[in-house]
Amino acid sequence: MKKFGVAAFGESGQYDLASNKLGSQNNELNEQLSIFQVKLVEFARQHNKELRDVPRFRAKFMRMCSAIGIDPLSIFDKNSHLFHIDDFYYQICVKIIEICRNTKDVNGGVISLEELHVNYFKNMNIEMEDIEKAIIMLGPLDGGFELFTIRQKKFLRSVPNELTDDQTKILEICSIMGYASITLLRANLNWKRVRSQSVLDGMVASGLIWVDSQSLEGEVLYWDPSWIINLS
Amino acid sequence: MGQQGSRIKVTESDKAMLQLKMAKDELHRYSRRTENLIGVERAELRTLCIKLKGKQLKQDNRARLLLKRIHYQERLLEQCSDQIINLETMVQSIEFKLIEKKFIDGLQKGNQLLKKLNVELNLEKVESIMDTAAEQIEIQREIDDALSNAVVGSTINDEVDRELEQLDREVNGTKETAPGVQDRLDQLPSTKELGELKASEPEKENGESQKETPKEEPLLA
Amino acid sequence: MTLETPQIYKFPPLYTPQTNKLIRKQQLQTWESIILQTCAQLSKWCINKNGKIYDQSTGELLISIFENPEIQRACSLEFQQEIWAYMLQNETALQLKESEDSNMIAIFWESLDSWSSTILEWCETSGKLNQVITIYEICESDENTNCKFYGMPSSFCLLVLHRLVDRNRATLLKDQGKIVGVKIV
C-alpha cells in the first residue's frame, strides 16, 4: 500500500520506537529469566548434597522456586539426580493432582494418561513410566486415585466414585470413535434403550461425557472428552 | 501527583491544530480512495488487454479512455500527496513556533526574576552590611582581649618564657641564638663516634652496608 | 493465513450447550478463549454478533466462529446469545452503543487499560505528548503501520481514549459535536 505524506519517504524508523521498546523490554525480561534459570540449576547442582540432606533447605528452595514462578519440575533432571530421586516423583504427583483438579469440570475426574503426558509432561522430558510410577506413589493417599484400563488405554480416576461396569463398557465403546449412542450400545452390547439412557444420563450428570445433539443421524451422541487430544 | 482534578486546558492554538489535522486526514482519506480506485481500474485495463490484443487494443476507445483516466487520477494523487506534505510541514512549523514561544516566555520570566533579585541586592546595601560585619568582628576581638587580661593569675606563658630567656641571656651571656634552639641543640647526640660518611649507593652489597648500619644515624634520614 | 484454534474446537459436543452445570461453565470459558484468541490473531477489535469475520480489503469470509463446517456443527442462536452474555458479564466484550451497527461487539483480547497504556507509551516515545492528535491519525496514519493499534476502529479507539481521560491523562476534542481529536499529556 502506498504511503502518503512524509511517511512516503521510506521507513520512518523513529515511530517504530513504541513497538520496539516494548519488544526489547520483553526480550530483555525473557533473557534475564532464562539466565536466572540457568544460574538456579547451577546452584542446585553445586549444593546438591546439602539440598539432599537438609530437608529444610530443600523446602526453602522449593518455596523460592514457586514464588518466582519457576516450576521446580522444569529444573529437575532425571539423569543427574538432582536432590533426591523421590522428590522428583513427588513433584510429578503434585502436578498430577493439580491437573486432575483443574480438568475435573471438563472430564468428570477421569483423564487419560495420554492426555496427561502429551499436554503437560512431554515438554519436560518426563516419560509415561515416570507418570505411572508417580501415580503408584499416590496410592497410599487414599484420595481416590486409581488407574484403570479400557481397551489397552490407561486412565486415571481422581474422584472417589468408582466407575461401574456399565460405565466402563460405555467408555470402551467411546474409545473407538470417540462417542457412544443408544444405537451403538444396542448394536454392540445388546442393551435396551431404557438401560442405555439411564447409564448415559448418569454419566452426563457426573460429567464423564459430553452431549452432542447435532449429529446427522438425528440421535444424541455422547462423547468422551479424552478423545479431544486425538483431534487434529 | 497533584494532577487529580486539574483539567487539561485546551488552548485556541490546540483548536486550530485540530482543524489543520482534520484537513490532513481528509486528504489522506481521499488519497486512499483514489489509490484504490486506480487499482481497480488498472485491473479492469488488464482484463481488457487480455480480451483484445495488439492493434485492436490501441484502437479500442474504452481502453484509451480508461488509461487516460488512470493517468489523470495518478496526477491528482501526486498533488494530494504534495498537499499532505505541505500540511504536515505547516503543522511542524507551528509546533516549533509554539516551542520557541515557550522558550522566549521562559527567558522573559527568568529576566524578571533576576531583575527583582538584583533590586533587593543593590551594591550600597551589600557594602554597608559588610562594613557592619567587619566592625562587629573588631569589637568582638577587643572584648576577647579585655576578657583574657581581666582574669587574675593566669599570665600568658609566652611572655613569661621571653622574660626568662632575656634574664638568662643577661646572666649567662650566651651567643645570640634564637630562644629555645640552644636547648635543643644540646639534646642532640655527640658526633664523636661517627665514622666517615660514605656516599650511600643503593646497589651496595649487603655485607658492606651491614657494617655501616649500626653506625648510621638519623642524620642520614 | 492459517488460523490457529485449540483442538477442542473440533470436538462436536462443544457446539451443544451441556446440561451438566460445571461442564457448562467450562464450555462457556472455552468459547470465550476461542473468541479472544481468534480476534487477537486476526487483529479484529469489533466483530459482528453472528461471529462471522470478513477480510477488510477483499471481503472474503475469514472465519465464522460459531460454525465449523469440518465437523458439521454450529452453535444455535440461543447458545450464541448465552456465550455473548457470559463474555459481557466477564467484561471481555462490550456491546457498542454506536448507532451505526448495534450488531457489533467490541472484543477485549487485551484489556482497555492495557490498550490505553499502549497508546500512552506510543505517545511518549514518538513525542506526541501535549499535542493535538486526531483519532484518524492514531489508527490510520501511515507512520503507525507497525503499531499494535493500527487499524483499530474509531469506536473502539474512543473507548480506549475515554479510559485515558479517566486516568486524567487526556482530554477529548470535538468538532461539530463528534469527538475527533485528543490531547494526551
Automatic annotation (TrEMBL), chain A:
Gene3D superfamilies: 6.10.140.180, Winged helix-like DNA-binding domain superfamily/Winged helix DNA-binding domain. GO terms for biological process: protein transport to vacuole involved in ubiquitin-dependent protein catabolic process via the multivesicular body sorting pathway. Its main location: cytoplasm. It is found in: Cytoplasm; Endosome membrane. The keyword Glycoprotein does not apply. Component of the endosomal sorting complex required for transport II (ESCRT-II), which is required for multivesicular body (MVB) formation and sorting of endosomal cargo proteins into MVBs. Component of the endosomal sorting complex required for transport II (ESCRT-II). Belongs to the SNF8 family. This is Vacuolar-sorting protein SNF8.
From TrEMBL, chain B:
The keyword Acyltransferase does not apply. Transmembrane segments: none annotated. Residues 169-221 are annotated as: Disordered. It is found in: Endosome membrane. One of its GO terms (cellular component) is ESCRT III complex. It comes from the Eukaryota. Residues 193-221 have a biased composition (Basic and acidic residues). It holds the Pfam family Snf7. Belongs to the SNF7 family. Keywords: Endosome, Membrane, Protein transport, Transport. This is KLLA0F09295p. GO terms for biological process: late endosome to vacuole transport via multivesicular body sorting pathway; protein transport; vesicle budding from membrane.
From TrEMBL, chain C:
Keywords: Protein transport, Transport. Pfam families: ESCRT-II (PF05871). It comes from the Eukaryota. One of its GO terms (cellular component) is ESCRT II complex. GO terms for molecular function: protein homodimerization activity; structural molecule activity. GO terms for biological process: protein transport to vacuole involved in ubiquitin-dependent protein catabolic process via the multivesicular body sorting pathway. InterPro entries: ESCRT-II_cplx_Vps25-sub (IPR008570), ESCRT-II_cplx_Vps25-sub_N (IPR014041), WH-like_DNA-bd_sf (IPR036388), WH_DNA-bd_sf (IPR036390). Belongs to the VPS25 family. PANTHER family: VACUOLAR PROTEIN SORTING-ASSOCIATED PROTEIN VPS25 (PTHR13149), VACUOLAR PROTEIN-SORTING-ASSOCIATED PROTEIN 25 (PTHR13149:SF0). This is KLLA0E05501p. It comes from Kluyveromyces lactis (strain ATCC 8585 / CBS 2359 / DSM 70799 / NBRC 1267 / NRRL Y-1140 / WM37).
